[in-house]
Specification:
This protein is α/β, with parallel strands linked by helices. It is built from twelve helices and 16 strands. The longest helix has 16 residues. Belongs to the TRAFAC class TrmE-Era-EngA-EngB-Septin-like GTPase superfamily. EngA (Der) GTPase family.
Length: 430
């Protein structure tokens, strides 16, 4: 952590080794937190970029206090980053003071020590009372190795953070700016860790949060920046946002596609949904701001039809109508995510599948085509997440799309694949 513009994002990127945080010359671009897994000489640890504090909003004292407080609460170790070029500022002194009670868990790093002169400046930082300052250059990488050596030395021995991922469901939350992603995440985690704002795009970075329900179920929420429409200044941010939305979806098991009930479905929403669809991930469509809609007993059905018409390729995705603001039905989301996830990892034994195939063929036998008739011999599931089935047939040319769709729908009727895209590929049996 550290005040804006000292180089936190740059350092985060250097440690993580991929461009996760957005680095721009505008202070405060990394507003929310950025999480990543770092690996230094085989020792893995989670690293959090606390982001800049928002200075426009006046009362930054309380902002700083709460940032420091949550860093202290969440972290085993804190890298307090400062800037050798500017020397100790009032803000550094203030943060330093707040960190002093946890001095043993604080590593003081002085960034932008790009040359000998600036490296010497680092000694001034002894005055913060946080022990030996380490001079680094996040830009050039100088000193970052020493810093990481110290980090891994100080960290308690822990199991690999990625190892216990198997029982955790990764959920990406995507949608246009302002549909209510941050509000939903806030509702779900039940605290105020994200900054929710009425201006579009407060959450510019994808951030992820681990969540454990009372019954011990674990989720990782990946909240993405929306995909922006306009604004020259934001172009660089936008480019990353699209990539990040894609990455977030790729990193997730289940994707929540958020729609604003009041604004309706726009071109941009379709683009967002397209990203989720193309990834082959499980999908839940979340219609947010349902509190703003004037309703009678037909409204939900009508809206559902509207969503189905606009997203014909997402017919497998369940739709939930919520209000992140009032909390309406928000509690139904995680149980639905679990259910959809369970559907996506379902493996159906071949013996059962072949009974089902037999039934399907008996119900609707393939039609003859130019005197030839399709024969289906065997159906087997070869993949999960998403489920992929292979059907062996006598002649690939006879396996038309309509019969493929019929089989998929039949499988969906027999086995619950709600929320999950299902694919069948045909192979010719010689
Ligand atoms: P943050 O607000 O603390 O996350 O800071 P950023 O990582 O966005 O960096 C702010 C500015 O400092 C950017 O222009 C960076 O390129 C620059 N910067 C970061 N690290 C270094 C460094 O080691 N040396 C120099 N000279 N500039 C740096
Ligand atoms: P994001 O850009 O997708 O993260 O959207 P935000 O969570 O920042 O929400 C954008 C705006 O919509 C904020 O002013 C929220 O208070 C408001 N908002 C979010 N969810 C709801 C909701 O369910 N109902 C109403 N009425 N407003 C909402």
């Amino acid at each position: 952590m550290g005040r804006p513009n000292v180089g936190k994002s740059t350092l985060f990127n250097r440690i993580i080794g991929k461009r996760q945080a957005i680095v721009l010359d505008t202070p405060g671009v990394t507003r929310d937190r950025n999480y990543g897994v770092a690996d230094w000489n085989g020792k893995k640890f989670n690293i959090i970029d606390t982001g800049g504090m928002n200075f426009q909003k006046g009362d930054f004292n309380s902002e700083i206090n709460s940032q420091v407080e949550s860093a202290l609460a969440d972290a085993d170790l804190i890298i307090f980053l400062t800037d050798s070029k500017s020397g100790i500022t009032d803000l550094d002194a203030q943060i330093g003071k707040l960190l002093r009670p946890r001095k043993k868990d604080v590593i003081l790093a002085v960034n932008k020590a790009d040359n000998d002169m600036y490296r010497l400046n680092a000694y001034d930082f002894y005055n913060l009372g946080l022990g030996d300052p380490i001079a680094i250059s996040a830009n050039h990488g100088t000193g970052v190795g020493d810093l990481l050596d110290l980090v891994t030395k100080k960290l308690p021995d822990q199991e690999d953070p990625s190892e216990n991922d198997h029982d955790q469901i990764n959920v990406s939350i995507i949608g246009e700016p302002n549909v209510g992603k941050s509000s939903l995440v806030n509702r779900l985690i039940g605290d105020e860790r994200l900054i929710v704002s009425s201006e579009a795009g407060t959450t510019r970075d994808a951030i992820s949060l681990d969540l454990k329900t009372e019954d011990g179920e674990k989720f990782k929420l990946i909240d993405t920046a929306g995909i922006r429409r306009s604004g020259k200044v934001q172009e660089a941010v936008e480019k990353f946002s699209v990539i990040r939305a894609k990455n977030a979806v790729e990193d997730s098991d289940v994707s929540l596609v958020l729609i604003d009930a009041k604004a309706g479905i726009r071109e941009q929403d379709k683009r967002v949904a397209g990203i989720a669809f193309e990834s082959g991930r499980s999908i839940i469509i979340v219609v947010n701001k349902w509190d703003l809609i004037e309703k009678d007993d037909h409204t939900m059905k009508e809206f559902e039809q509207y969503v189905r018409d606009e997203f014909p390729y997402l017919s497998f995705a369940p739709i939930v109508f919520i209000s992140a603001q009032t909390g309406l039905r928000v509690s139904s989301i995680l149980p639905l995510v679990s259910e959809v996830y369970a559907n996506s990892i379902k493996r159906i034994p071949s013996a059962v599948l072949n009974d089902v195939l037999f039934d399907a063929i008996s119900m609707t036998p393939p039609a003859a085509h130019k005197g030839k008739i399709l024969k289906l011999f065997y159906l087997t599931q070869v993949e999960v997440k998403p489920p992929l089935f292979i059907v062996f047939v006598n002649d690939l040319k006879l396996f038309h799309f309509s019969y493929e769709r019929y089989l998929i729908n039949y499988l969906r009727k027999v086995f619950d694949f709600t929320g999950v895209p299902v694919k069948i590929k045909a192979r010719e049996r010689s």
